[in-house]
Amino acid sequence: MDSVRLSGFTLAEVLITLGIIGVVAAMTLPVLIHKLNDRANVSGMKKAYSILSQATLSVAAENPIDSWNMQTADIEGTKDVFELYKPYFKVVKDCGCGKRALGCWSPSATKALNGKTYFYGHPNGIGDTYCAARLADGINISFDTWTASSLGVKESNEDDTDVYFFYVDVNGDKSPNTLGLDVFQFVVKKGKHGVIPAGLANNSSMCSKDDTTSYAGIDCAAKVLYEDKISY
């Protein structure tokens, strides 16, 4: 009777195959995870934009934007307007206004798109006069005043003016806490209706890792909304 010869993989061949699979996985998984995180942050940013837009329409219906006191470093004016917004937000934690409103934001952890510590009005990264809250869906939000040109929303035929603006960290305290990746800015200014994404008037000129300033990424909102992706 003829013997039957069985064929199969040797232990060495199995180990080599598993090793190759492991190397490929190690190379591709971080890229896939990064893309998934970016996609989630884009969706979170669009959701935050919708929340802010709806709230602004409601607030402006009873308190026209042109009547707001927009003066940089005026904590009382900032607080008064933020109080108008809060009924339209699902606030789970109100950190108040002033002294960087600690507890709803991690200012010292906020980075510019180029990796530098983001500097805005205070060594810890966020201004002293802003108001902050945490929303039910996990978004960290803050509210403050600055200039239109600094946020890329000054039109060429306009004088530079003070504006109110929102920071939104779309995934709360989770990393990367970086401008243009999970932290975005939206503006409300006189003479305009609704919320303006930062960078709308300057083609998001600072939305680049090659920007050497500590503001790199501050005006990415318009670019991300237009492209529906994070492409930098």
Structure description:
By secondary structure, the protein is of the alpha+beta class. Helix content is 30%, strand content 16%. The protein has helices at 11-62, 75-85, 221-227; strands at residues 91-97, 131-135, 140-147, 162-169, 183-188, 196-197. Strands 1-2-3-4-5-6 form a 6-stranded antiparallel beta sheet. Strand 2 (131-135) and strand 3 form a beta hairpin. The protein starts with 10 loop residues before the first helix and ends in a 5-residue tail after the last helix.
**How would you characterize the largest beta sheet?**
6 strands, antiparallel
Q: What is the share of helical residues?
A: 25-40%
Compute the number of strand runs: 6
Mean pLDDT score, rounded?
Answer: 85
Low-confidence stretches: none
Compute the separation of the termini in Å: 69 Å
Instruction: State the assembly state of the protein chains.
Output: single chain
Q: What global shape is seen?
A: elongated
What would you report as the Rg, rounded to the nearest angstrom? 23 Å
Strand content: 15-25%
Q: In DSSP terms, counting alpha (H) and pi (I) runs of 4 or more, how many helices?
A: 3
Helix and strand run: HHEEEEEEH
Strand order of the largest sheet: 1-2-3-4-5-6
| Alpha-beta content class | alpha+beta
Describe this protein with a few key phrases:
6 strands, 3 helices, six-stranded antiparallel beta sheet, 232 residues, alpha+beta
Give the SSE layout.
Elements lengths: L10 H52 L12 H11 L5 E7 L33 E5 L4 E8 L14 E8 L13 E6 L7 E2 L23 H7 L5
Antiparallel strand pairs: 1-2, 2-3, 3-4, 4-5, 5-6
